[in-house]
Amino acid sequence: MDFKTLSDTEVKSALELAWDVFQKYEAPDYSEEGMNTFHGCLKDADFTSMLKCYGAFDGTKIVGMIATRSEGTHIALFFVNGSYHKHGIGKKLFSMACADNKSGTFTVNSSPYATEVYHHLGFIDTDTQKVQDGLIFTPMVCKFK
User: Fold this and answer.
1) What does the pLDDT look like over 117-139, one tens digit per residue?
2) How many domains are contained in the chain?
3) DSSP string of 57-85?
4) I need a surface site. Which of 21, 48, 69, 108 has the fewest CB within 10 A?
5) Please, what is the average pLDDT of the chain?
6) What is the CATH number of the domain that holds 9?
7) pLDDT at position 144, please?
8) What torsion do the CA atoms of 34, 51, 81, 1 make, to the nearest 10 degrees?
9) Which InterPro entries does the entry link to (predicted)?
């Protein structure tokens, strides 16, 4: 397994992975509005240009990705191909993002599916579950330094 910061050309594959994993694991909890909002973010060049993306590769196939924004302090996207869940890929990607985060703090708006994963990584809820533009999320924070 190879892990690296993604080039601009590799980000497209990472965003496709995010959409595929979202459809399989997240979409059942979301309204059509929420699915359209999420898909719109992935297609929005202004949004995606703000991201710093890291990826996990099995050969040439991208199997995991994490993307940060706000100077690396907010996790915007975090997805691992279902066939690769529970193999430490998410933890390694999170470690890479931590290494580039100078503040020692991450925030995230966790989907219902990912809440347990974030708790396992040390995040705590900062508020109750919210719905905005059809997206369901729980605001969380993690202090790691």
Assistant:
1) 999 999 999 999 999 999 999 99
2) 1
3) EETTEEEEEEEEETTTTEEEEEEE-GGGT
4) 69
5) 96
6) 3.40.630.30
7) 86
8) -170
9) Acyl_CoA_acyltransferase, GNAT_dom, N-acetyltrans/Recomb-assoc
